[in-house]
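Sequence dictates fold. Next comes a concrete instance:
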Amino acid sequence: MVNPIATRIEGERMLAAFAPRMGRQYANGRNTDHGPGAHQAVSQFSPYIRRRLLLEADAVATAIAAHGPEAAEKFIHEVVWRGYFKGWLERRRGIWASYRHSLAQDLATIEVDRELAQAVNRAEAGETGLACFDAWARELVDTGYLHNHARMWFASIWIFTLELPWRVGADFFYRHLLDGDPASNTLGWRWVAGLHTRGKTYQAQSWNIAKFSAGRFTPSGTDLAANAPSIDHTEPEGLPPAAPLRTPQTFDPALPAALLITEEDCRPEDFSLATLDIRAAATLSASHLRSPRQVAPMVNEFETVALADAASRSGLDCEKMHAGADCDLAAWAERVGIKQIVTPYIPEGPLRDWLRLVEPKLATQGIAFCEWRRDWDAAIWPHSTAGFFKVKERIPRILQDLRMT
């Protein structure tokens, strides 16, 4: 996946091209990482799903139409899993805040611990001497993509073999993955570390890597950690209980409005824009908020093109804005003379953190910040209270409620 085209048309082209492989072929081959340029059994359109240039509901509907719900079950489950993770983090917002706070502490430690800094630099540069790990590190940096199985192996080796801070590894992924998502990335690393499912870790094993890398890598048993003990002792308070979902403020059709487009949802045309008195519109770039460290240029470029594509489809003359000072959005709203900003829902993550600083500035000027929540999220998130099984057992009913079966 080198220099993908970040447009809705390209996402839909990839969806149509992959449709014949969404059934048994996906179920049987999805776990094998064939390496860069050879990922044929997986879709690789996750960067489009991430920004909703391509919709989860459309991907699932395509799979069902092509193969039926039974043959496409594994593909459907993987798509729903993304929604589960997003809902889980929405209901435990403190987990994201804890990650960001502790990452800052980890990075501060690296600043003064020369040996640790060198170890992290070698790992991120793919210079550890462990062939499989180094190849995955280089593939991530070069392409902005890693096969899901490789992500699990990589995270396990980072944590248990190299014994590096897990949050710094998660940050490395988040800065480079084109499909980088605060929920999937953070919770995926927590799952490997034994923090998501408390006490249950994922251990990278030589036989598993050899089998599911199609023999490309054959690490010896001594190359990898013999054990993968949970690090849940680092969070002795355990998991917080699931909180109620945040209720977004609804818009008032009578008030002058401005449309805000972010990479959280690049399909504004799906919403009822015609019912609003829209006086202005803007795109808001925010991928730089992913990390205190430099975000990969490829990630920034994908966001830039995706926002431009979304703006062109909105049919509105969109200004380009940057998530910078927390007073900028309020100043823009005042300048264009509106009383409400409308946007697709902004879930938990760095942009939501930024908006928590912005919304009080808007409120003091009498400007409402209103969001639309998609039916897909509304159908899955209420069930994202514990493990995935609780959502998985409801998938048939969820698809019925969404009129997909």
